[in-house]
Amino acid sequence: MRSKDSAMMKKIIEYVEGYQRENNGISPSKAMIGDAVGMTRASASNYLIAMAERGLISYDGYHIGTDYMNKFNTEGSSVIILNNSGSCGKPEIQEQDIKGKCMLPVEIFGKGNFYIITADGDSMEDAHIFTGDLIVVETSAKPIKGDIVVALIDNETTIKRYDGVINGKATLSYMNESVYPGKTIALDEFVCLGIVKSVIRTMD
Fold first, then answer.
1. Has this prediction a pTM greater than 0.70?
2. How does residue 9 score in pLDDT terms, banded at 50, 70 and 90?
3. Residue of 123, 140, 178, 183 with catalytic role
4. Would you call 123 a catalytic residue per the annotation?
């Protein structure tokens, strides 16, 4: 292991813990760390690996475990938070698509394979989903009629209600009758990227 500056390691930990305190345990990206402490993303990655080898942090390539995060000893699922809903439509998630990672407590969210995206638009306001809400999406469940789903349409993602197969087509519905009365989307091919399980909203 190459020699690393202990003062820089301390500076990185201080930045990461400060970021986690302000962002509900979300870990900053390597690029964010590099910008904060004055190094490249690649150097920040090397430092994180070296710090993990020394036992100063835990690190899986995305999530950074620090003393601050270790205080949360509840069993949970490690979940990727994507920068926006469009990112999850890509066949492979790249680092630039990832805002961070967090733990979802099993006692609240249950067990499953989850990711988190940010809602954008007004089409689901009758379902109490608003722009800026964090949407917890489960990928391991199969959709049934009435589920709120994340679907892939023309390589873009959308959050809609799944109304089953109507006239041979999978049907998705808008849920904002005042703006989109009765509006639906009929699909020959239904690509479901997951079912919305929870909505997390921050209070300004």
1. no
2. very high
3. 123
4. yes
